[in-house]
């Protein structure tokens, strides 16, 4: 894929770092959203809007950058096949991974009939979208009793069709995106976009796409590659687990005595962190924060973030 065909959606505060890491991509291909935390719904909506203005008749393929996909060749083959499938069926396309163990952080797709492919890709119709469950018991029952896969966003569709879906399922977002469209290319564009974007309600893209996936107008690839999402310390541990024969991942100046199954990361190269008699623990030490939490309760980080916000300590988020 040529660099000219790749677009990067990011925020203004990251543009310097992103452009330095991807110098091959033309600067005009950066879709830069305002530095306001609005979740993926408004952010991806802005990207869909820009793509509809630039390439309305071309399918797009959206994937998150904070993931490792192995092998890369299988990922690129899927991107190609997704484009072929989108052009043939005009249906919304996403990805799924076989659910062998309950994943409390995942939503799930209930699969229907297989879709014939000229390649080796496994593709199915999506019969229903299931929000992540509240308990391990509910999640286990779902994956054991239904033909489901964990949902991993690898989205392919047409930008105008996606905007139509925004109009149908989140008309408030769509209205603001059309206001943004009207100011693009005009004097004061950046300030006007920032003002409109700031008014948009925060929310995930699933506020739109879950309805599409429930409508019977969507398809799912079984992802033919290993995906590691570095959104949690648990996945960082899983990715680097081979680093130590005691089942520990250590990054930095660390001494671990009689300790197994743990992640210990030290940000300060001049600081030593020592642990002893620990099992299945996450220890992350930075210049201003020390996090200590059992791996099995890693989801409690969200509660910690809530408590930090409530106590007026947002500078530590």
Q: What is this structure's SSE topology?
A:
Elements: E1 8-11, H1 15-21, E2 30-33, H2 40-54, E3 60-63, E4 67-70, H3 72-89, E5 92-98, E6 108-114, E7 123-130, H4 136-145, E8 148-157, H5 159-169, H6 171-183, H7 189-199, H8 206-214, E9 218-222, E10 226-229, H9 233-240, E11 249-251, E12 254-257, E13 263-266, E14 273-276, E15 281-285, E16 290-294, H10 301-310
Parallel strand pairs: 1-2, 5-9, 11-13, 12-14, 13-15
Antiparallel strand pairs: 3-8, 4-10, 5-8, 6-7, 6-8, 7-9, 15-16
Helix pairs in contact: 2-5, 2-6, 5-6, 5-8, 6-7
Structure description:
The chain contains ten helices and 16 strands. The model has no long low-confidence stretch (mean pLDDT 92). It is α/β, with parallel strands linked by helices. α2 (40-54) packs across α5, α2 crosses α6 and α6 packs antiparallel against α7 (189-199). It has a five-stranded mixed beta barrel. It has a four-stranded mixed sheet with strand order 11-13-15-16, with helices on one face. A two-stranded parallel ribbon has the order 1-2. β6 (108-114) and β7 form a beta hairpin.
Order of helices and strands: EHEHEEHEEEHEHHHHEEHEEEEEEH
Poorly predicted ranges (pLDDT <50, ≥5 residues)?
Answer: none
* Oligomeric status: single chain
Structural class: alpha/beta
Name the strands of the widest sheet in spatial order: 5-8-6-7-9
Q: How many DSSP E strands? A: 16
* Percent of sequence in beta strands: 25-35%
Helix content: 25-40%
Q: Which sheet architecture does the biggest sheet show?
A: 5 strands, mixed, barrel
Task: Quote the distance from N terminus to C terminus.
Answer: 36 Å
Number of helices: 10
Q: In angstroms, what is the radius of gyration?
A: 21 Å
If you average the pLDDT, what whole number results? 92
Silhouette:
globular
């Amino acid at each position: 894929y040529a660099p000219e065909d790749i677009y990067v959606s990011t925020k203004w505060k990251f543009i310097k770092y992103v452009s330095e890491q991807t110098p091959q991509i033309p600067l005009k291909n950066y879709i830069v959203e305002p530095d306001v935390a609005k979740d993926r719904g408004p952010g991806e909506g802005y990207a869909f809007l820009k793509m509809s203005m630039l390439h309305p008749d071309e399918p797009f393929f959206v994937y998150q950058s904070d993931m490792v996909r192995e092998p890369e060749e299988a990922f690129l083959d899927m991107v190609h096949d997704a484009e072929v499938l989108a052009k043939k069926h005009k249906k919304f396309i996403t990805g799924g991974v076989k659910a062998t163990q309950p994943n409390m952080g995942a939503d799930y797709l209930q699969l229907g009939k297989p879709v014939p492919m000229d390649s080796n890709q496994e593709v199915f119709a999506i019969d229903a979208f299931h929000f992540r469950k509240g308990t391990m018991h509910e999640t286990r029952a779902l994956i054991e009793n239904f033909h489901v896969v964990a949902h991993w966003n690898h989205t392919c569709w047409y930008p105008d069709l996606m905007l139509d879906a925004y109009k149908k399922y989140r008309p408030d977002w769509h209205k603001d995106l059309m206001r943004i469209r009207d100011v693009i290319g005009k004097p004061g564009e950046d300030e006007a976009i920032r003002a409109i974007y700031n008014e948009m309600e925060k929310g995930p893209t699933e506020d739109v796409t879950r309805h599409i996936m429930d409508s019977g107008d969507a398809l799912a690839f079984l992802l033919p590659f290993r995906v590691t999402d570095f959104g949690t310390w648990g996945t960082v541990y899983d990715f680097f687990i081979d680093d130590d024969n005691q089942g520990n991942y250590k990054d930095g100046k660390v001494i671990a005595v009689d300790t197994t199954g743990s992640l210990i990361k030290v940000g300060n190269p001049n600081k030593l962190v020592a642990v002893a008699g620990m099992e299945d623990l996450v220890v992350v030490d930075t210049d201003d924060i020390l996090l200590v939490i059992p791996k099995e309760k890693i989801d409690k980080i969200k509660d910690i973030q809530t408590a930090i916000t409530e106590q007026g300590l947002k500078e530590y988020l």
